[in-house]
UniProtKB/TrEMBL annotation, chain A:
Protein's cellular compartments: Cell membrane
Transmembrane segments: 61-80, 137-155, 176-197, 252-273, 280-299, 376-394, 415-434, 480-501, 522-542
PANTHER family hit by this protein: POTASSIUM-TRANSPORTING ATPASE A CHAIN, POTASSIUM-TRANSPORTING ATPASE POTASSIUM-BINDING SUBUNIT
Protein name as catalogued: Potassium-transporting ATPase potassium-binding subunit
The keyword Iron is assigned to this record: no
Organism: Streptomyces lucensis JCM 4490
Keyword hit for NAD: no
Job of this protein: Part of the high-affinity ATP-driven potassium transport (or Kdp) system, which catalyzes the hydrolysis of ATP coupled with the electrogenic transport of potassium into the cytoplasm. This subunit binds the extracellular potassium ions and delivers the ions to the membrane domain of KdpB through an intramembrane tunnel.
Cellular component GO terms held in the UniProt record: plasma membrane
Gene: kdpA
Subunit relationships: The system is composed of three essential subunits: KdpA, KdpB and KdpC.
Family to which this protein belongs: Belongs to the KdpA family.
Entry's Gene Ontology molecular function annotations: P-type potassium transmembrane transporter activity; potassium ion binding
Keywords: Cell membrane, Ion transport, Membrane, Potassium, Potassium transport, Transmembrane, Transmembrane helix, Transport
Pfam families linked to this entry: KdpA
UniProtKB/TrEMBL annotation, chain B:
Membrane topology: Single-pass membrane protein
Gene that this polypeptide is encoded by: kdpC
Record organism: Streptomyces lucensis JCM 4490
HAMAP family the record matches: KdpC
UniProt-recorded name of the protein: Potassium-transporting ATPase KdpC subunit
Top-level taxonomy: Bacteria, Bacillati, Actinomycetota, Actinomycetes, Kitasatosporales
Main location: membrane
Length: 553, 222
């Protein structure tokens, strides 16, 4: 069997597995966020928080909950790293410096998981499991909560109420993420991922002598790292490290974990707005883009353009033998089209075009299928923009799911899609214009520019993958990518929740002959077009300077 | 004003309490339960899939090693010990720089770009070395025979595997250096070649450490 055919079959198997999970998981999540009953353990948790889980919140109250919880998360994680040197269970690892602690704390709370540190020599057991892995769970739960609030905005009418943040947070964590991650972690261990607390120990070597290895709770962290579209690796090599991703099967399994919640949330959306066909239309849009990008990535990586790859006879630089080119390509697009940023192969050594595809995936705003929750709300904002464009064409007030898209709604949607490109381009331009930041680049020329563009694209879109040649552990990059991550996460959430509030207040308009049927393939086509054109126009100049220049050279 | 400050403090308090409770669930109970199950059901795998030869641990079947001669005086990089099968280059491996009480290996890739002059040189040098090392009397390796994995660094720098093509290419050399017949070594490689999982997942591969352990046995039996 040729590697190309094997790659294609792996893609088919993955699609089959995702299709099987779609309806049960989507329906289950809809039930989780609609049920009136609380589990006993949840009641204890609400008591500890001091919150009434049945109190409905308006959008400002919901937002305040999101911000307060996230602020506490940043603070706690910052202190945990600053105090690592004196905490027990740190295996002798010293405290992390302020700029890097800030960067890492923000990175994990914002579901970005950008890492300017080497996991194996910086973080001990306590920070890894009680700090970083915790945010892997709760930052994903916050993302889903905000998406569910927006869905409620569409589903409800004549009310300002969007649900209860604490209840959504706790339920998402306890009923979806913890059970899913626990099962996934056991599967990973069964295949060879490590799970122990043995610390650093000596292991004998074949040629004599020994090596020092990190032990750790790797599988449990790996599972939620993918399932919550986080991406922060226990080891520096991330999912290329054999202890995180030991076999070809675990590689496909991890890709499945990355994609399953974001895709299935479109079912949850369909169920909650009372029309599953609307969910299928959104799903079709996501699948079209994801599949297109994946096929393109496989094609360019198998073709291995680029002088060094031609000299090697294959695009195997930065790729593992057990995965090969096909499986690595699927991982690369799946991680950059979601907000994951985990890598099983190193994007910096991909073909020029392949690196560009990865970057473009993030620039789309990570909506196909996007991160846990953030993918769905990002895509729904694009749907609002698409119906607006369609409305302009026929001269009719646009509406989506029975809600009018008026001036206020459009302003919020427009602000949402402008904020991340503004962050990416301003921070990249500033880094290139100042004298010292460019010193961090490993490669020169177009590829060097791509490293910086990739870094801020990754940070602002809360992805976290890197063209890892860039030395990001400088005060400039730690601080600036930290700011990009914060603003890139929470400003869009403000606009999403404000939009949700304004939609929920409306009285639905009845469907008439003139209504744009948003559950039909025509709309899916319009949506795909709107996404590609808006992103293309925004980023084309920057892409032309980096990956395009390299790919066409 | 006073009121809003109190409200903010109260809200932050709620956020902090929520974080602490959820830390207990996801940061303490979850990893401990998973570790308990993992250690109970898959003890060897959970601890790194260590393998033994002659009763001694010689590494993990999942982690690649180097098979080099001891460093000679004045040498910066050691020469490969050509008696053993060689793994892939690992130019992206780093050395510990932060927590210097340990000698940790930092996993990683070169991150060099597809048009990088440095990478072109690395690939060219590696190819020349592979051709030179593996050409033995009666068996000349052509540069075009060298597969891509033999001249590129992996993503982790710890890739435990090589492609069957690279293993086959080393057979004549390994047989000559160990005084074994080519067919015996060929059989050894064939026995240690793992196909794609279920016929389509990943790529065919040969685990270098396991192969070398079997080779050592074969040499001892000779």
């Amino acid at each position: 069997m040729s590697p190309e055919l094997a790659g294609f079959l792996q893609l088919l198997a993955l699609i089959g597995a995702l299709a099987l999970a779609y309806i049960p998981l989507g329906n289950y999540m809809a039930k989780v966020y609609s049920s009136k009953k609380h589990l006993r353990v949840e009641k204890w948790i609400y008591k500890a928080i001091g919150a009434n889980p049945d109190a409905e919140m308006t959008w400002p109250a919901y937002l305040r909950g999101v911000l307060a919880f996230s602020a506490a998360g940043v603070l706690f994680l910052y202190l945990l790293q600053r105090l690592q040197g004196v905490l027990p269970g740190s295996m002798g690892f010293s405290s992390v410096n302020p700029a890097q602690s800030f960067n890492t704390a923000v990175s994990f709370v914002t579901n970005t998981n950008w890492q300017s540190y080497y996991g194996e020599q910086t973080m001990g057991h306590v920070v890894q499991t009680a700090g970083l892995a915790v945010q892997n769970f709760v930052s994903a739960a916050v993302g889903i909560a905000v998406a569910v609030a927006l869905v409620r905005g569409f589903a409800r009418s004549r009310t300002g109420e969007l649900g209860n943040f604490w209840s959504d947070l706790v339920r998402g964590t306890l009923r979806i993420l913890v059970p899913g991650a626990a099962i996934a972690a056991i599967v990973l261990v069964a295949c060879g991922a490590i799970q122990n607390f043995s610390g650093i120990h000596e292991v004998g070597q074949f040629m004599g002598g020994s090596q020092q290895w990190n032990g750790g709770a790797v599988a449990s962290q790996e599972a939620i790292k993918e399932f919550g579209t986080n991406g922060g690796g226990y080891f520096n090599a991330n999912s290329a490290h054999p202890f995180e991703n030991p076999t070809p099967f675990t590689n496909l399994f991890e890709i499945f974990l990355i994609l399953v919640i974001p895709f299935s949330l479109t079912r949850t959306f369909g169920v909650m707005v009372g029309n599953v066909k609307q969910g299928y239309a959104i799903l079709a849009t996501m699948v079209t883009i994801w599949l297109g990008f994946t096929v393109l990535m496989m094609w360019t990586e198998f073709a291995h353009h680029g002088a060094a790859l031609q000299a090697a006879g294959g695009a195997m630089e930065g790729k593992e033998t057990r995965f090969g080119v096909g499986s690595s390509s699927i991982f690369a697009t799946s991680t950059t089209l979601t907000s994951t940023g985990a890598v099983d192969s190193f994007h910096s050594s991909f073909t020029g075009l392949g690196g560009g595809v990865a970057m473009l995936g993030m620039m789309l705003g990570e909506i196909a299928p996007g991160g846990t929750g953030s993918g769905l709300y990002g895509m729904l904002i694009m749907a609002v923009i698409a119906v607006f464009i369609a409305g302009l064409m026929v001269g009719r007030t646009p509406e989506y799911l029975g809600k009018k898209i008026g001036g206020r709604e459009m302003k919020l949607a427009a602000a949402y899609i402008l904020i991340t490109p503004a962050l990416v381009l301003v921070f990249t331009a500033a880094s290139m214009a100042l004298p010292t930041p460019p010193h961090s680049m490993l490669n020169s020329g177009a590829h060097g520019f791509s490293e910086v563009l990739y870094a801020f694209t990754s940070a602002s879109n809360n992805n976290g993958s890197a063209f890892a040649g860039l030395n990001a552990n400088t005060d400039w990059f730690n601080t600036m990518t930290g700011l990009a991550m914060l603003l890139g996460r929470f400003l869009p959430m403000v606009f999403v929740l404000a939009l949700a509030g304004s939609l929920a207040e409306q009285t639905p308009v009845p469907v008439t002959a003139g209504t744009l049927r948003t559950e039909k393939p025509l709309f899916t086509g319009l949506l795909v077009g709107a996404i590609l054109i808006i992103t293309g126009l925004t980023y084309f100049p920057a892409l032309a300077l980096g990956p395009l220049a390299e790919g066409l050279a | 004003m006073n009121n809003s400050v109190t409200n903010t403090v109260r809200l932050l308090g709620a956020g902090l309490r929520a974080l602490l409770v959820l830390t207990l669930v996801t940061g303490v109970i979850y990893p401990l339960v998973v570790t308990g199950i993992a250690q109970g059901l898959f003890h060897d795998k959970a601890n790194g899939s260590e393998i033994k030869a002659d009763g001694k641990v010689v590494g993990s079947s999942l982690i690649g090693q180097s098979y080099n001669l001891p460093l000679k005086k004045g040498q910066e990089t050691p020469d490969p010990d050509l008696k053993w099968f060689q793994g892939r280059p690992s130019n992206g491996l780093g050395a510990n720089s932060v927590n210097t009480q340990y000698k940790l290996i930092l996993s990683g890739a070169t991150n060099l770009s597809a048009d990088s002059k440095v990478l072109i040189k690395q690939v060219g040098d590696a190819r020349a070395a592979v051709v030179k090392d593996n050409s033995v009397p009666g068996y000349a390796v052509k540069p075009s025979d060298v597969p891509a994995d033999a001249v590129t660094s992996s993503g982790s720098g710890l890739d435990p595997d090589i492609s069957p093509a690279y293993a086959d290419l080393q057979v004549h050399r390994v047989a000559a250096k160990n005084g074994l017949s080519v067919s015996a070594v060929e059989r050894l490689v064939k026995d240690h070649t793992e196909g794609r999982t279920l016929g389509f997942m990943g790529e065919p591969r040969v685990n270098v450490l396991e192969l070398n352990i079997a080779l050592k046995d074969l040499v001892a039996k000779k």
